[in-house]
Amino acid sequence: MTMELVTGATGYVGRHLIERLSRAGRPVRALARDPTRVEERPGVEPAQGDLVSGEGLEDALQGCSTAYYLVHSMGADTDDFASRDRRAARNFTRAARAAGLERAVYLGGLVPAGGPRSVHLRSRLEVEQILLDGLPRSTALRASILIGAESSSFRILVRLVERLRILPFPAWRVHRTRPIAERDAVEYLALTPERPDTEGRSLDIAGPDAVSYGQMIERIADLLGVGRLPLPLKINQTPAASALVAAVTDQPRGLVRPLMESLEHDLLPRDDAAAAIYGLRPLGFGRAVERALADWERTEELAAR
């Protein structure tokens, strides 16, 4: 079996994907700026590298058949994450071509009908295009909110429910999306190299349930067993709201604001072609939340319980 490279190996999705690949006996090279943070697993080889600077990329890509691109800079640099991500994607494609690698698997974000309307989603789409142009056999998977105990988006929603008895619901509360369970997103990624029909394509991956952001928050409150009073607002006020949300949820404002800007439109998949190609039946929203909360409580107490 040939080596597979996972960039962003110490990040949320990267760690779970490496665990999945290791369980399947697939050799993995785990790329991180600090390889000492890569968890020891059978068949996993840590490697040092930095996509933004380009350091170590060509060496890490040598001998790899597929590379998973799971890196983004949002939250690390409040004002400049889009240019950092652009530079990282270009460095990666140059190094991949030099190493003879033809295929990458990228996890990006769902895009509103009519195109991206936030800096966050425009950047995700730009990275997707750089990878598909530079490595034409690549596959881009687009997802909305991942439902998992370590997902930043999910943790923000849970912390809001946990810490606020009155929940301000901005105008974006009515917009809908189709969140996907962490387990299912990781499975889509792991299966992609085994699906020839996905080469050179951009595919949307999603759970089966279309829910509004307001409904998501209400459902999380129900599953936590707490009563919360919704306070509907007629405006978004994203700049001010993101500062409040960042303070309440202990998340960086540079992460929260771009995410909240992405909520101002429906984020729904273009079609359900991916589920048919992969043969998967993703978990529904309620079941995904139940699993995520159970995982959360294995390592950290939820005060709302």
What are the main properties of this structure?
Rossmann fold; 305 residues; 42% helix; two-stranded parallel ribbon; 17% strand; 11 helices; alpha/beta; 7-stranded parallel sheet
Characterize the structure shown.
The chain has a seven-stranded parallel sheet, sandwiched between helices. With 305 residues, the protein is an alpha/beta fold. The radius of gyration is 19 Å and the shape is globular. The protein has helices at residues 12-23, 57-61, 81-99, 119-134, 152-163, 182-191, 213-224, 238-249, 253-261, 273-278, 285-299, and strands spanning 3-6, 28-32, 44-48, 64-69, 104-109, 139-143, 146-147, 166-169, 176-177, 180-181, 201-204, 211-212, 229-232. The chain has a domain at 3-145 and 180-205 and 267-282: 3-Layer(aba) Sandwich (Rossmann fold), CATH 3.40.50.720.
What is the structure about, briefly put?
With 305 residues, the protein is an alpha/beta fold.
Strand content: 15-25%
CATH fold-level topology of the domain at 3-145 and 180-205 and 267-282: Rossmann fold
Written as H for each helix and E for each strand, in order along the chain, the element string is EHEEHEHEHEEHEEEHEEHEHHHH
Give the strand tally: 13
Topology:
Layout: E1 3-6, H1 12-23, E2 28-32, E3 44-48, H2 57-61, E4 64-69, H3 81-99, E5 104-109, H4 119-134, E6 139-143, E7 146-147, H5 152-163, E8 166-169, E9 176-177, E10 180-181, H6 182-191, E11 201-204, E12 211-212, H7 213-224, E13 229-232, H8 238-249, H9 253-261, H10 273-278, H11 285-299
Parallel strand pairs: 1-2, 1-4, 2-3, 4-5, 5-6, 6-11, 7-10, 8-13
Antiparallel strand pairs: 9-12
Helix pairs in contact: 1-6, 3-4, 5-7, 5-8, 7-11, 8-9
